Every structure is written in structure tokens, then in C-alpha cells.
Amino acid sequence: IRTLKFLKVQVCKYFWAFKFVRRMLSKLNRGLITRNEEIEIGNSALCQLKKWRADILSAGPRLISREKSNDMTLWSDASNTGWGAVLFDDDTQRTFVVGNRWASHEASLHINIKEARALFKALTLFDNLEQKTIQPMIDNTSTVYSLIKERSTSELLNKEVTSIFALCKRREIRLKKPQYISTKQNPADFWSRLF
């Protein structure tokens, strides 16, 4: 017997009532009836609807809260002048931003290396990532695919990727499969160009 978890009401007890309501909503959606139209309710459906209402009212109020997911979305980006990252916590709905200018020894690196390094710096500097699941969003295909494969044919990019996964292991961060997004969709793009 299936139970509606948040109401603690058995569904099969009210099968005919639910079926009637579903059919009427379907007719309404298809334009076969109007909102103000009077309809006849069969005796068994009406009886079940009354019992369902009484069960819900007798069950009392329920606090419905969604379970914490520990999920976060991390957009990172690199430009020739700096890097930026935007972190969104799915549970608290809070947003965090971090970014900076490239150090002199980093300024001449290839953009693919800078993109991976931007992610590494973000994962290093955000202090609330332990035991979280992070969804990286990156606008550089080489970096995305290197992270997916956990390696690269480029020696420097391979070092960055290895550093990222070592950092995640050390900080107990679960890294989801990175997703490619366009630069227009990347909120970190603004922060990477700010410096």
C-alpha cells in the first residue's frame, strides 16, 4: 500500500476520488470543460473525497522540509588579466565570489592552463567545501575534457588536473563531471576580467 509521505495518507483508500479528480483536470486542460462549469460527482468518489479531507484535517499540520543536498555549483573562469569564481550553495541559496589578478609568473600561461588553475584556486580559497558535492561549470572545452578524463596530453594541463583531484581528495570534496557552458552563461567571466 502506497502512502503519501508528507501527508501520511494511504493513496489506495482514495483511488476512485483521485481518478475522478485526475480525469476532471485532464478535461480542463484539454478545454473540454471550464473552471466554472458544474459537474456531477459519483457517490463513491464524493464519499472518498470527504473521507480524504477528514483524514488530512485529522492528521494535523506537517512541517515539510527538503533534505540538505550538500550540492554546490561552481563557475570558474580565466582571462588574460585575472581569474574569477562564483560558488552557489544549493541548500542555503547563498552565492560566494572570489577572484584575483594573475601573479607575474602565471600571466604568460596558456589559456587552458589558466582555466584549470582558476578552478584550482577557487577550490582552494572557498572555505566551506569540505564534504560537499561540487558541480564545476567551465567555458573552456580543453579544461572540461581534461577534467572528465582526469588527464591531458599537455604536460602543464595534466599537472593542473592532477593538482585539482589531489586537492579534492585532501579536502574531501566530491567533484561532479564538469560541464561546458558558453562564456555568456558564465557569471565568473565578469570577475575574471575585473582585474
Which regions contain 5 or more consecutive residues with pLDDT less than 50?
1-6
Count of DSSP strands? 8
Query: Gap between N and C termini, in Å?
Result: 61 Å
Average pLDDT confidence is 88
What's the main sheet like? 6 strands, mixed
Cα-atom radius of gyration: 26 Å
What is the count of DSSP helices, taking H or I runs of 4+ residues? 6
Shape: elongated
User: How much helicity do the residues have?
Assistant: 40-55%
Write the element-wise H/E pattern from the N-terminal end onward: EEHHEEEHEHHEEH
Structural class: alpha/beta
Percentage of residues in strands: 15-25%
Describe the structure.
This protein has helices spanning 15-29, 43-59, 111-125, 141-149, 155-171, 188-192; strands at residues 3-4, 9-10, 71-78, 82-89, 95-101, 133-138, 174-175, 179-180. The chain has 195 residues and is of the alpha/beta class. Strands 3, 4, 5, 6, 7 and 8 form a six-stranded mixed β-sheet that branches. Strands 1-2 form a two-stranded antiparallel ribbon. It is elongated and about 80 Å long.
Throw out a few tags for this protein.
195 residues, alpha/beta, 6-stranded mixed beta sheet, 6 helices, 19% strand, elongated
Topology of this protein?
Elements: E1 3-4, E2 9-10, H1 15-29, H2 43-59, E3 71-78, E4 82-89, E5 95-101, H3 111-125, E6 133-138, H4 141-149, H5 155-171, E7 174-175, E8 179-180, H6 188-192
Parallel strand pairs: 3-6, 6-7, 6-8
Antiparallel strand pairs: 1-2, 3-4, 4-5
